[in-house]
Amino acid sequence: MESWRSTPRVFWAVFSAPSFWLVAFFLIPLSLIWAYSFGEKTGIIDIAVTGTLDNYIRAFEPVYLQIFTKSLWIATLSTLICLAVGLPVALTIVYAPPKAKPWLLLLVILPFWTNLLIRTYALIAVLRTRGYVNFGLEWLYDQASWLFQIVGLGGLGAAILGERFEPVEILYNNGAVLIGLVYVHLPFMVLPLYAALERLDRSYLEASLDLGAGQFQTFWRVIVPLAMPGIVSGLIITFIPTLGSFLTPDLLGGPDSTMIANIIERQFKSANDWPFGSALSFMLMYLTFGALALRAFLGRGRSSGLEA
Amino acid sequence: MIAAYRRWKRLHPAGPLDYTRKWPMQLTLAATFIFLYAPILILILFSFNDSRRNIVWRGFTTKYYEKALGNESLIEAFVNSLTIAFVSTIVSTILGAMVAILLWRFRFPGKAGYEGGMALPIVIPEICLGVAMLAFFARIGWPTDLPWPLNLGNIIIAHISFSFPFAAVVIRARLAGFNRELEEAARDLGASEWETYRDVVLPYLKPGLVAGALLAFTLSLDDFVITFFTSGPDTVTFPVKVYSMVRFSVTPEVNAASTVLIVITLFLTAIAMRVQNRSAKRD
């Protein structure tokens, strides 16, 4: 690494273009909505930046506060489900035979490269009332009632299973949003967990098992504490995109599954209240930065703890 | 066959850490992969199903692919998406390489802050960038009646803004393994600054550039949220088109069109992995 002064011409050559782009087409647009968030509408498309805090105060009205808490809750829950699924998956892959390992890892990463919209759409086709999950359940129902019929207990079968097959409503509710968020964000969790577990010295695990701890005890008292930095970054890397997701609640959710991104979209499209939408965007951004700061903070505490 | 497997198993007992040979872990792994892949595989399979209601298998057909190909607005959206991704990839890779070289080579005041700024487009929620771009282009009065492909300009700009920091990360990772003595040797042997970059650094960087470019391409091709806020009625991209189709209903045409896009992305991913593997072997 050298000081920029030693070859200023090269420095400016590689510095100018990306910096210009970042400022002109990223920071200025963000500053613009930051300014709008302190403004008010004066016409259909006119916004006057007056320095008012009304938009932020409005965001704390019960209606919006409830959407914020609900989004945080859904994001937290789906992140925890991702952890519960991702941890055993990552652990299995780390200790898989060397030949199988890259393939298993590839299977986890591959959905990453598939279009988010297409994956959400695929989920709709599977979960809807006339979808494959219900189709499978109906088949099971038919088999079960047929079984009851041949053993001559048709009446009992109808009493237990119901007269007719009733499709389960899986789509367009909060449960569907949860399934969708886990479906989309699982790779975000598995990869940091894999990276953390891969670095873990396997002799610790062997020692624990040799000295009489069972698999469960080893898991809770050796693997989890040692992998904690990876678990924390996995949690936060998964939490951030989950909290800001727009497509999943929009396509899979019902009327009461609105998340923050959906009300932001509404302010900028149908409701046409850009100042309020800008304020909501910045609140979402502050939550994101909060999560990142938490990660940095926990990460620092963890590494200094190990050194001590 | 089974007997041979049993014998192999007796000779190679599962170690305590061979989780892939323990049934609860096998079950978890299998369930996870079914969860991740079943919807996509069903989508692909039923794009070939000869039935509109697409619940029961009624025989193989490619008529929905023909239908999707005959759908002019779908094709137009597809061409738009590819054009945007192509231009955005070129610019993003160049900007990304510049950032990578800058951060790898130089010390300068405020570098930590600069790195943080470059990471911002990666971390901020898509929806925030989307609405910011909408507000920005409305504010500067970006003309909406330009002829094709200039009317895609605002979408391309938005895509570059979120793609080039990703490309920079990938390219910088490759650069980190570069042996700077090679550069010094080139300079000692009389190469100019520019010649050193052209003949020594760039050839080494090539796999990183390819990987960065493919990442930028996929990011651009996949993006829905940011494009949703920057596209107009005449500048519909493929994901935006699929979104409006999905809102109405689940149809085999959408299945067919989605399958085509999945195949394209898989193909690009395969190329990216081959390039990376080859370069890893060579090093």
Topology:
The complex is a heterodimer of chains A (308) and B (283).
Chain A lengths: L1 E2 L4 H29 L2 E3 L5 E3 L4 H6 L2 H33 L6 H9 L6 H12 L4 H19 L3 H8 L12 H26 L2 H9 L4 H12 L1 H16 L3 H6 L7 H9 L5 H34 L1
Antiparallel strand pairs in A: 2-3
Helix pairs in contact in A: 1-14, 3-8, 3-11, 6-7, 8-11, 9-10, 11-14, 13-14
Chain B lengths: L1 H10 L11 H24 L16 H8 L1 H34 E2 L3 H13 L2 H14 L13 H23 L4 H9 L4 H30 L2 H6 L7 H11 L3 H31 L1
Helix pairs in contact in B: 3-12, 4-7, 4-9, 4-11, 5-7, 7-9, 8-9, 9-12
What is the CA-CA span between the terminal residues of chain B? 41 Å
H/E topology pattern of chain B = HHHHEHHHHHHHH
- How many helical elements of chain B? 12
Question: What do the pLDDT scores of chain A average to?
Answer: 87
Short description:
Chain A has 308 residues and is mostly helical.
Structure description:
The complex is a heterodimer of chains A (308) and B (283). Chain A is mainly alpha-helical and 308 residues long. Chain A has 2 domains: 63-114 and 170-303, MetI-like (MetI-like fold, Orthogonal Bundle); 129-169. Chain A has helices at 8-36, 54-59, 62-94, 101-109, 116-127, 132-150, 154-161, 174-199, 202-210, 215-226, 228-243, 247-252, 260-268, 274-307; strands at 2-3, 39-41, 47-49. Chain A starts with a strand and ends with a helix. Mean pLDDT of chain A is 87; it is low at 303-308. Chain B has helices spanning 2-11, 23-46, 63-70, 72-105, 111-123, 126-139, 153-175, 180-188, 193-222, 225-230, 238-248, 252-282, and one strand spanning 106-107. The mean pLDDT of chain B is 86. Strand 1 of chain A pairs parallel with strand 1 (106-107) of chain B.
